[in-house]
């Protein structure tokens, strides 16, 4: 039985220096065989002490029961700061709570359903572009494009013109490629001047390019909000009419001070939603297409499900809800290739877990990648089986061993949004196309900010009606 690709783990743990000099390409390469069966591991690096926690009860303690003692790691904030500023993804305490309160309403189920039409417009544009897909062409950039386009349409009511999209997405590729190098330099506590070398300059420039593009979109709307606050009725009406997430951020004021958000605070949140909202979904969609191409019989089952549902009703929120197999293929892709492979926290107080004493200030990593492939929690952990979610024999309840969207109060705000867009995009492709991997092609998973395929995904698409005629 074919097994979906995953980087073969080393036999044993690599030395620290080997990790530093040879594993900077992808953190997945630093894993070794025992990583896939351990419940807790300890790593002493020059710049920090790091604990890897995979045991479900301890994960729950960190992410749900004692969240206040395990805030988001400063290292993550430092790495993302040039791009995201002080956004909800990295802040803690009161600042985070204020930002979460502000964003939560925009991501409620009802609100997510309202943007289905906008998602569908973007999916239809994707289908039009796919008509020009060459056999064996990489489909990963298309998944990145369509998910970024959905974010622009739903968050900022604007479409992403191809030249601007390419500039932003290419800058993000550079940012993502340089980020793990900085993380390693920080973990190894290298002197400041070594952390500010050529790679860091490239990274900062890429972040600035993305922020400038987002600032250009936000600025006129921000001015409109200022005019509305100064009493201009037309500006207020225009602002209220655009029922996107940017509008709700522009209209919100701080509960305690009554002040609106500043321009840079708004740019921080929008940049974060752009990053968190398209990169993760694009990764998961590309992996879903890979799995479907690798398992043609599952692809045929899923196609049949889509056709069956769409014979009774048009593509809609209700229709995709009925596509249970499509949903479970996406779930299984998120299990095997969770876009956020590591969740990183910090210990504010010294504490004990299993046989380890963790000093205050230690870093804690929870890895959906390892937990989702842990042999004790899953049958056939590296195998593809979308039907496992409807069977009754899951080895461990999903609530304990499945966390592609995180858990507890910091759980992903966009989980319902992501599920809806993914089902829509997959169903649209499955309805119109049969697809296979290009001859001899195998993707190479790499772990950077998200888990992507280093060499993309080369697919051959064939239109279904062409095949039948
Ligand atoms: C398949 C797609 C997605 C995956 C796998 C994913 C995964 C995650 C994970 C694991 C976290 C928690 C990180 C942690 O605890 O350290 C998270 C947080 C977050 N995600 Fe997502 N995400 C996805 C899509 C989205 C989308 C579409 C949006 C918005 C449009 C979004 C916005 C956010 C935000 C704002 C947070 C921070 C929440 C907080 O800290 O309060 N995500 N995501």
TrEMBL record:
- What family is it from? Belongs to the cytochrome P450 family.
Kindly list the GO molecular function terms attached to this UniProt entry.
heme binding; iron ion binding; monooxygenase activity; oxidoreductase activity, acting on paired donors, with incorporation or reduction of molecular oxygen
Lineage: superkingdom: Bacteria
Instruction: Give the organism the record lists.
Output: Zobellella taiwanensis
**Can you name this protein?**
Cytochrome P450
PANTHER family cross-referenced by the UniProt entry: BIFUNCTIONAL ALBAFLAVENONE MONOOXYGENASE_TERPENE SYNTHASE, CYTOCHROME P450 FAMILY 4
UniProt KW keywords:
Heme, Iron, Metal-binding, Monooxygenase, Oxidoreductase
Q: Does the keyword Membrane apply?
A: no
Query: Which residues are involved in binding heme?
Result: 412
Q: Does the keyword Cell inner membrane apply?
A: no
Q: Which PROSITE patterns match?
A: CYTOCHROME_P450
Cofactor(s) recorded for this entry are: heme
């Amino acid at each position: 039985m074919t097994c979906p690709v995953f980087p073969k783990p080393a036999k044993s743990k690599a030395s620290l220096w080997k990790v530093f000099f040879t594993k900077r390409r992808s953190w997945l390469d630093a894993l070794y065989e025992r990583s896939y069966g351990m419940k807790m591991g300890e790593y002493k690096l020059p710049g920090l002490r790091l604990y890897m926690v995979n045991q479900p009860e301890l994960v729950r303690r960190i992410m749900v029961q004692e969240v206040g003692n395990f805030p988001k790691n400063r290292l993550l904030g430092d790495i993302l700061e040039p791009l995201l500023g002080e956004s909800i993804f990295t802040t803690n305490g009161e600042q985070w709570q204020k930002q979460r309160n502000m964003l939560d309403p925009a991501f409620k189920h009802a609100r997510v359903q309202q943007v289905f039409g906008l998602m569908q417009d973007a999916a239809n544009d994707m289908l039009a572009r796919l008509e020009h897909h060459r056999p064996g062409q990489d489909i990963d950039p298309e998944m990145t494009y369509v998910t970024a386009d959905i974010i622009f349409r739903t968050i900022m009511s604007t479409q992403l013109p191809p030249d601007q999209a390419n500039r932003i997405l290419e800058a993000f590729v550079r940012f993502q490629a340089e980020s793990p190098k900085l993380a390693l330099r920080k973990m190894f506590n290298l002197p400041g001047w070594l952390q500010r070398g050529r790679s860091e300059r490239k990274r900062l420039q890429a972040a600035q390019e993305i922020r400038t593009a987002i600032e250009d979109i936000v600025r006129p709307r921000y001015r409109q909000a200022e005019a509305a606050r100064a009493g201009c009725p037309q500006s207020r009406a225009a602002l209220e009419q655009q029922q996107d997430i940017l509008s709700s951020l522009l209209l919100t004021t701080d509960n305690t001070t009554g002040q609106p958000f500043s321009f840079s605070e708004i740019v921080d949140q929008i940049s974060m939603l752009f990053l968190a909202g398209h990169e993760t979904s694009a990764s998961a969609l590309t992996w879903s297409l890979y799995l479907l191409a690798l398992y043609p019989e599952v692809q045929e089952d899923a196609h049949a499900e889509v056709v069956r549902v769409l014979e009774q009703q048009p593509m809609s929120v209700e229709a995709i809800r009925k596509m249970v197999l499509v949903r479970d293929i996406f779930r299984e892709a998120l299990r095997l290739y969770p876009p956020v492979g590591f969740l990183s926290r910090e210990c504010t107080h010294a504490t004990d877990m299993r046989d380890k004493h963790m000093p205050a200030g230690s870093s804690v990593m929870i890895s959906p990648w390892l937990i989702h492939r842990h042999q004790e929690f899953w049958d056939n952990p590296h195998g593809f089986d979308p039907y496992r979610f409807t069977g009754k024999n899951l080895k461990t309840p999903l609530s304990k061993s499945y966390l592609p969207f995180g858990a507890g109060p910091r759980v992903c705000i966009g989980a319902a949004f992501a599920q809806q867009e993914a089902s829509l995009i997959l169903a649209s492709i499955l309805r119109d196309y049969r697809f296979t991997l290009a001859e001899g092609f195998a993707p190479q998973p790499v772990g950077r900010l998200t888990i992507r395929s280093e060499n993309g995904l080369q697919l051959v698409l064939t239109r279904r009606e062409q095949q039948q005629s």
